[in-house]
Design a protein that fits this description.
Length: 296
């Protein structure tokens, strides 16, 4: 179990599609060195044995281990004891959805859902939303089986925060503010549906300080879609997202779209993901502080 005197944990999700293996391994190794506790990778071509050595600085005897999962499409690693983890995944799909329960001593259990939903390349938004609705039903079932809603969902959802698969009540029902995550359920048409708080709404476009021309170092999204033939293309997408249930949302202390790891820039001079050498997605890094979290 996670020690009660170490209630703050850091997480990283990254879709590694298109990356050069050596460069990715160097970046991931540096992220492990700064103390990242949980890594979740989609489209990872690096063998698990190799990844464990990378996370442990070249050794096979470090703390990082692959977390056993029913589904193999997403790779899950942690430097927390393996006995802290329990796989609650439903083995009914193509491996695009993982449910792990983490035991936190003195606090209770946390459900960590990881996803890599179907791509926008072959399916329109409505078709993709159908698969998300299925996952949303699974989340509710797993929460009922676990007896709590201390849950987060992270992954490449292949939908933006405003798309129906994220916002509809019978889908993920994710709203843009903490206040709404609490108050919206008092509305009669929403009271039967659990909500998520989705902080990713704030991660679109240029990030500037009010009243200044200074642009802060943050990309316009997590994924750049360069199709100039689509007149409705917004180019930047926030496909990689973190969602939190209201009971856990106040544990969030930090959430970043990373653009560099040490000396390695993850973006081009124009700020777009370096899809030729690293990945066409940018990683999400976040921290949760479980102090003060109740067992309810």
């Amino acid at each position: 179990m996670l020690p009660h005197d170490k209630p703050k944990l850091s997480f990283l999700f990254w879709n590694l599609r298109g990356g050069d293996s050596d460069t990715l391994q160097r970046c991931i190794g540096r992220l492990a060195q700064i103390g990242t506790n949980v890594f979740i990778f989609a489209e990872c071509q690096i063998p698990r044995e190799t990844m464990v050595r990378v996370l442990n600085g070249g050794s096979t005897s470090g703390l990082h281990r692959a977390v056993p999962c029913i589904n193999n499409r997403l790779h899950f690693y942690s430097n927390l004891p393996l006995i802290s983890w329990f796989d609650r995944s439903l083995s009914d799909g193509d491996g695009r959805f993982i449910a792990q329960e983490l035991t936190v001593e003195g606090i209770g259990n946390i459900l960590i859902f990881a996803a890599h939903f179907r791509s926008a390349t072959n399916l329109n938004e409505n078709a993709r939303a159908i698969f998300v609705r299925g996952a949303a039903r699974d989340i509710v079932k797993i929460e009922r089986d676990a007896g709590h809603e201390r849950s987060l969902l992270v992954g490449d959802l292949n939908l933006n925060p405003f798309d129906s698969g994220l916002t509809d009540t019978d889908a993920l029902h994710a709203v843009m503010t903490k206040e709404l995550a609490v108050s919206a359920r008092t509305h009669s048409i929403r009271k039967e549906f659990s909500l998520f708080y989705n902080p990713m709404w704030a991660y679109f476009g240029d990030h500037r300080l009010a009243g200044t021309a200074e642009k802060l170092s943050r990309p316009g999204g997590t994924y750049f879609y360069p199709n100039t033939g689509d007149p409705a293309n917004t180019f930047w997408k926030v496909y990689d997202q973190l969602l939190l249930r209201p009971s856990i949302m106040n544990c969030l202390r930090n959430l970043e779209i990373l653009t560099s790891v040490g000396a390695d820039s993850l973006v081009t001079p124009s700020g777009r993901p370096r899809s030729d050498k690293i990945s066409d997605h940018l990683p999400l890094f976040f921290e949760l502080d479980f102090r003060g979290l109740s067992n309810g």
